[in-house]
Write a structure and sequence with these properties.
Strand order of the largest sheet: 5-6-7
Oligomer: single chain
Largest sheet: 3 strands, antiparallel
Number of strands: 7
Shape: globular
Distance between the termini: 25 Å
Length: 128
């Protein structure tokens, strides 16, 4: 899959599907966009495109709900501010994944039902 398609899928996932008051991680966003294990690429992409595309960049965290910046840095404070505006509690540079994680149920173009659980990401062939 080429980068233009990934760009479109990531934009759509973040703008249309990632809900207010929920967070996801770079790896889950990569898997949902059909990019496999490209979490670092997604991290760079979010950083480079969030302002231009008005993306909710602060809803994308490191795995397990860890903020990508230290809480005492300017960037970390910006993250915390935006998350708190959505009533997301941040404690010790972490967001409680069990409480705030976005766990979507999505069927891809090949009929695969994809869903996420707290321990990872799974897909199952749609029988219909």
């Amino acid at each position: 899959m080429n980068q233009a398609i990934w760009h479109y899928r990531l934009s759509e996932l973040m703008l249309k599907h990632l809900p207010y008051g929920r967070v996801t991680c770079y790896g889950q966003l990569a898997r949902l966009a059909g990019m496999g294990h490209q979490a670092r690429w997604v991290g760079r992409w979010v950083g480079q495109n969030s302002t231009e595309l008005a993306l909710p960049w602060f809803r994308v965290l490191r795995s397990g709900g860890q903020l990508p910046f230290s809480h005492d840095s300017a960037e970390g404070q910006d993250f915390i501010h935006h998350l708190q505006e959505e009533n997301i509690v941040v404690r010790k540079n972490h967001v409680d994944w069990r409480t705030y994680a976005w766990l979507p149920n999505i069927v891809d173009e090949e009929g695969w039902l994809m869903w996420a659980e707290h321990s990872g990401f799974y897909s199952l062939k749609n029988p219909y």
